[in-house]
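B., you asked whether I could sanity-check this one before it goes into the benchmark set. Here's the sequence:
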Amino acid sequence: MSTPEHHHPLILPDRSAAVPTSTEARAKHRIAMLEEQLETMKQERGTKQRKTTYYVAQGRAIRRTVALYTSLEDLIAENDRRYEELQESSTAEQDRLQRGYIALAQALPWVHGKLAELDVDDCEDMRKKLKKGADAARGDDTSTLKDLVAAWVNQDFHPSPLIRSDDKQSRGFAHNVCGKLLCPAEWDWGNDLIKAAIRDRTSDFIVSENSWPLFLYEGYAVNGNDLEQGLFKSKVLVQAFKAVFTSPSSAKEADGDGDGADILENNRRARRQLNQAKVKTCVASIINIRKVSPRSIAYIVCQVRFALSSVSSWRSVDGDFDYEGFWNNVVDFFEDCPGPAAQRRVTKLLEWWTRKIFGKNHRADLTPEVVSQMSVTALAEQRRALEDAAFDSD
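And here's what the prediction gave me:
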């Protein structure tokens, strides 16, 4: 019969002293504690990095679909003001800000809840990262369109000399084709006196955000008696929108009527196919848009205007031209209609845009209200009614 292992009794110290431990044991304890601290730091760093990556990636939608110049702080402040003051009247600028906040909530549905959930410091950190992503996306698009717009103008107008993709100084009103496209709709670029006055920046021909430039018009031609005819339907706008939101290669199909296959579905299938080169997810899929919005058109309008200009770096003011005011004017054309007739024309124009960019697919229009009127839902309701009647008769 084996004898139990003998244990020496633990020597308890006074209240102020420590229980004796060996040097080896103390070293092991320290190592374990340090390893635990290191693991906690790694987890916290990983969580912080994931949040940073997510916020920056999500922020890339903001300039493109929400607000090109307005800060997130201003959008949030206007929504808070309305909730707190509950005023019935507001200015046009305040209404535009509020519509911007609604666009933000639609583009990034999780933001509204996060603003209420996070503390002040975390909210500020989130806004900074969203802005970082927003500005990075704007910069990427500016760089892309600088090259592409030059190529499209060369292809369609065959100017002499051709526009160089790496040169902005030779664009703008100094270039005959760029000048024509930038020329306000109310003036005739073909008139040499007007052309010279615009280039000399005389007081009689001030180029500002208060004019619609020719590049916005279908066929680059304007009807002075109906300035809305063909507005925002130009080829270069469609090309630029496709290049940014779907893919640069899809911009080749700008002349079509939007009757092709669903470009988003084609992109999704291409990424799923095996034995294929990696296909980049298009921006429209990443930020989950299937319809063209007024603010996304305004974004592209400003980007194309900048690409045609001679200004080398992004700015909000170019001479007498204020880009922020221009963006506001485009947004207000769509969002601040003078009445129902104008609203119907705007709705039709947006439908034209959505078809041009995304094709005939209308799944985004299958709202619960629309589905409730269809035969599957109607039959389900009829069957339930028959069951209720049978139960009552029993």
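One thing to flag: The chain is about 60% helix and 0% strand. Otherwise nothing jumped out at me.
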